[in-house]
Specification:
single chain, alpha/beta, 3-stranded mixed sheet, 6 strands, about 50% helix, elongated
Length: about 130
């Protein structure tokens, strides 16, 4: 029983750590994931022009999303502001107005999240592809 109890304590500790990162005052792990997503989608148009997607979606499991809503936290705006600072530091040009949208997803397991990005719908894919060339 000692090994089972130790495993249970380790799992609880891991869950609490992850939860603190997902819904804590400063969602550092989410911000890091957004930065990685942004940096991985860089399109170098010229020596002085580097374009990145402007629409970011963060999908949270039901429990994490409900907790954010319950707390009344404006994490989406905080993440948008932090990502904007990151882009400014890197010299990035957004493909349009920057947004970070947080949504509930039943496809994401509890304690996890998924980050995706793209050009905002009102920016045509052709215009974004022309920026690539």
């Amino acid at each position: 029983m000692g090994a089972l109890s130790a495993l249970e304590r380790a799992m609880e500790h891991g869950w609490e750590s992850l939860w603190a990162r997902v819904v804590g005052r400063e969602p550092v792990e989410l911000l890091d994931a957004l930065r990685r997503e942004c940096d991985s989608k860089v399109v170098v148009c010229s020596e002085s022009r580097v374009v990145v997607p402007n629409a970011y979606d963060v999908e949270l499991a039901d429990f994490a999303y409900d907790e954010l809503v319950r707390r009344g936290s404006d994490v989406g705006q905080e993440l948008t502001d932090s990502l904007a600072r990151h882009g400014e530091q890197q010299g990035y040009e957004w493909a349009g107005p920057l947004t970070v949208h947080i949504s509930r997803s039943d496809r994401v397991p509890n304690g996890r999240y998924r980050v995706t990005s793209g050009a905002m719908p009102h920016v045509s894919a052709e215009a974004f592809q022309q920026a690539v060339r």
